[in-house]
Amino acid sequence: MNDMGRTISLCIIAATMVVHHAMAQQKVQTQVQPQQQMQAQAQKILFKGIPLGGEINTFKQRMLEKGFALNDRRNDQDGTCSFTGKFAGDFVDVCCAFTPSDRRVAKVEVLFKRQTVDKEGKAGASKEQQMAKFNELYKAISNNYGKPARDIREAGKGVERLVGWTEKDGSVCLLQQNLQGRYSVLSLVFYDNEAMQGLKEEKFRKK
Looking at residue 7, what is its pLDDT? Predict the structure, then answer.
């Protein structure tokens, strides 16, 4: 991940930590049939078919098996690791956060770097291309998790639009975010509630 990608990733992490806390506190009623609702409640949050909340080394191995390349090995001790590979038809950066003590996967963040819009028009995708990808992801996630719990425009912290889906064990957020008044970036973030709580508690104890 280059410096621009790393800056974008860190900014998205700051915004989505707040979003996850709010979504985790909200009880959502989805408009699905009773049998479908029971299945949804039992469903773990998955990334590329890999459940979050498991041990990080297992997650890494399965990511490698799916064709992703592991980056930044030196960061493993900091509770993060990153990958590059193909997801939803795009080459993406994937940042994974895990609990340092028992090394459970708490969050997987996907940055669609090729969908970044440069408002000065010097590089990147057009706004129309970014919106087409946003709508494609919105439809795909809704097919898996049903009606979103929230769809907010101008959500603060530079977030232009945030759509969130909640499950019993976690949540998924699709975001368009403005950075430095110039770039509009597209990201998708997957959370495991239990591991995220453990991650927050460990960070609090270190303060």
Answer: 45
Q: What are 53-76's pLDDT values in tens digits?
A: 999 999 999 999 999 999 866 567
List the one residue out of 174, 127, 181, 128 whose CA is nearest residue 155: 174
Token look-up 């949050």 returns: 45
Angle between helices 3-24 and 193-206 (to 10 degrees): 110
Q: Is 160 exposed, middle or buried (0-12, 13-18, 19+ CB in 10 A)?
A: middle
| Band of residue 98 on the pLDDT scale cut at 50, 70, 90 | very high
d(CA 122, CA 116): 11
Quote the pLDDT of residue 42.
46
- Could you give the CA distance from residue 182 to residue 180 in angstroms, rounded to a whole number? 5
Helix locations, the chain, DSSP H: 3-24, 34-41, 56-65, 127-145, 193-206
Which pLDDT belongs to residue 119? 84
Closest C-alpha to 117, from 190, 181, 188, 189: 181
- DSSP string for 51-70: ETTSBHHHHHHHHHHTT-EE
Tell me the C-alpha to C-alpha distance, in Å, between residue 168 and each of 42, 43, 191: 7, 8, 11
Q: Which pair of structure tokens corresponds to residue 99?
A: 């609990």
Query: What is the rounded CA–CA span in Å between residue 191 and residue 123?
Result: 31
**How many whole angstroms separate alpha carbon 175 and alpha carbon 15?**
10
- Rounded CA-CA distance 61/155 in Å is 36
